[in-house]
Write a structure and sequence with these properties.
189 residues; mainly alpha; Serine Threonine Protein Phosphatase 5, Tetratricopeptide repeat
């Protein structure tokens, strides 16, 4: 609750500063983020598009991609994520969104090339920031397990458990990998 209150105060303070600086793109960006975190995606989209009219920014494109992902507008989401990556190929938010789009395509019954593309994206995220736990989890659970790639799944899920040791799901998934790979003694540990 305290964190939410501090965030609210920070946003109010930012808006008051913006009123003094007269920087419309930044004002619309912050307002768009406020609506985004309130799950008001349509309002957030409007504000971020206003900011984008005056200033092309990788983060604006990445947030718009995430909004379109939430709205199940896959093509728009993919286009925005790709636009973000043209400006900044290391934008982790855009990469995560693009990877999630590819996974959604695969789970939606589209061809397997999306799974390969998703794998490339999550490996790229790890190369940029190996301390993020999410790409390891996604690679293990949503890519390697379904493809029966036991060694790869074990490797990334161990790394996930190392980065996020209090997450029980990592250990359950490691047990599942060991069982499916026929390593029953390891599965018991």
């Amino acid at each position: 609750m305290r964190k939410l209150f501090i965030s609210f105060l920070l946003i109010i303070f930012s808006f008051s500063l913006l009123a003094e600086t007269k920087d419309p793109p930044f004002y619309h960006y912050l307002k768009g983020l406020f609506y985004f975190y309130e799950s008001e995606f349509s309002l957030s989209e409007i504000e971020l598009l206003k900011a984008l009219e005056e200033k092309r920014n990788s983060y604006l494109f990445a947030y718009l991609a995430e909004i379109y992902l939430h709205k199940f507008e896959w093509e728009k989401a993919e286009k925005m994520a790709e636009s973000a990556l043209k400006i900044n190929p290391s934008n982790i938010n855009a990469l995560l969104t693009l990877g999630n789009i590819y996974l959604a395509h695969k789970r939606g019954g589209r061809d397997g090339r999306y799974l390969e593309k998703a794998e490339e994206i999550y490996k790229k995220i790890i190369s940029i920031d190996p301390t993020l736990p999410e790409p390891y989890y996604i690679l293990g659970k949503w890519i390697y397990l379904p493809l029966s790639k036991w060694e790869e799944a074990e490797e990334v899920l161990k790394k996930y458990a190392e980065l996020f040791p209090y997450k029980d799901e990592a250990y359950l998934l490691l047990g599942e990998v060991a069982t499916k790979a026929g390593n029953y003694n390891e599965a018991e540990l």
